[in-house]
Amino acid sequence: MTDDQQAKNSYRQILKYMGLFGSIQGLTILVGLVRNKLVAVILGPGGMGLISLFNSTITLISNATNLGLPVSSVKNLSEVYEEGESSKLHDMVTTVRTISFTTAILGFLVCLIFSTLLDRFTFSWGNHALHFALLSPAVAMMAITGGETAILKSVRQMRPLTQITILHVVVALFTSVPIYWFFGEAGIVPSLVIFFFAQMVLTCYYTYRLFPPRLRYERRRLMKGLGMIKLGIAFTISGIFTSGAEFLIRSFLNNHASLLEVGLYNAGFMLTTVYAGMVFTAMETDYYPRLSALNNYPDLRNQVVNRQIEVTLLTVAPLLIFFTIGLPLIVPLLYSGRFAPIVGMSQIIILALNLRAMKLPVAYMPLAKGDSFPFLVLEAYSAVLMVVAVCGGFYYYGLPGAGWGLFITGFVDIIVVYLFTRHRYGYRMSGDVVKYACMQLPLSLAAFVITQCLSGAAYWMLGIAVGLVSLFISFNLLKKKTMGS
């Protein structure tokens, strides 16, 4: 096979899995948007803010107690999977499950014991200690689900991963909405527990068919897991910084503004970082295990990183432009008219997502390599910067200021990550990456300027025109990469 054919196959593989998981993410997001629309109408911004506070808190506890296993174990499992030894793979799966079950117990106990402290730190009104205590099983279930999902990713079980994703959001829709309808805000805690329970059951159903459930508490096995634990602890600490940053931002908004602002900020954050960022989630599912298997081939690894950036940027840029232009219609459609203040903030955040498309593939290099301390430092500084930038921006300029805070964080992030990986791993950005960035990023900036300066027919005509130009460029370049000229 010639080098040109290998390159085309590589681009096709990236597009295949991004297309597969992107379409699945699109479907799940569509169902999720219906759910969020109904929840927003039933509970309003205040109820959405309450859900956000509970979610960010239990995510913080989960990240603090799961030893980073959902991410760190992918590296070890992927390497063993590539060796092709079935007995060794089953042994590693048992090790991962044993450690993840242990962290599930730890997370449960931490959330239960410190429920009163969590209430005092999160809320300035009411008594929510019982709510946090009741959410402790959710923390345990998140740990188990994380370990099982890592197993599926590592052994390239893409079909089960897609099925789990679809089934989970459907179950969430048909369980949470009736609960909120009948019980209002009182149904938030049981709805969250059911949500994570369904996720755990669905994931275990698929993994247990591949690898029957088995736990082994042996010194030898735990010693084998030290590598995962070492990297995982670094990821845990970084997760504490990341989740802690989101937690501190929401607590700041709750204490210095109101629950209404928390709900609005969370809606804007979810709409952009989660929904518009679906391509990034699709990328991570296939890319991280593939990159982890190339640790001993630096030239090939750099090639894979650059190709991933090219495809990600070309795929996401047109989507983000159309999303930016359409936000004045999308926000009231997906939420309600009461969420209109998030439009400006969301349009600013989308600018940062363009930078994220170029940063994320590179940012996985320390993680795939197993360099725990550098990864920790990069994540820690980013989290601190985000808290300072977002809280400072909100304090002076409200929700748009919070959006600019996230943009500043993303802009500084990409510079630091590129400088670090160039020095540490010898990473070099390819000429194609630079060329495509020079084509697409100015168009994204032009779309943002249109949202700030125009209105009426001119807004829609020029905005759609910019999006079509971006789409035309991406389509032709991707066609050339995969099919040839």
Flag low-confidence runs.
Answer: none
End-to-end Cα distance? 18 Å
Largest sheet: none
SSE pattern, N- to C-terminal = HHHHHHHHHHHHHHHHH
State the share of residues found in helices, binned by percent: over 70%
Helical/strand content category: mainly alpha
Q: How many β-strand stretches? A: 0
Helix count, DSSP H or I runs of 4 or more residues: 17
Radius of gyration: 22 Å
The pLDDT mean sits at 81
Bin the strand percentage. under 5%
Identify the overall geometry. Answer: globular
List keywords for this structure.
485 residues; mainly alpha
What does this structure look like?
The protein has helices at residues 3-65, 69-83, 86-113, 115-122, 129-134, 136-154, 158-183, 188-210, 219-224, 226-256, 259-276, 278-292, 298-334, 342-369, 372-425, 431-453, 456-483. With 485 residues, the protein is mainly alpha-helical. α13 (298-334) runs parallel beside α16 and α13 (298-334) runs antiparallel to α17 (456-483). It is globular and about 70 Å long. The model has no long low-confidence stretch (mean pLDDT 81).
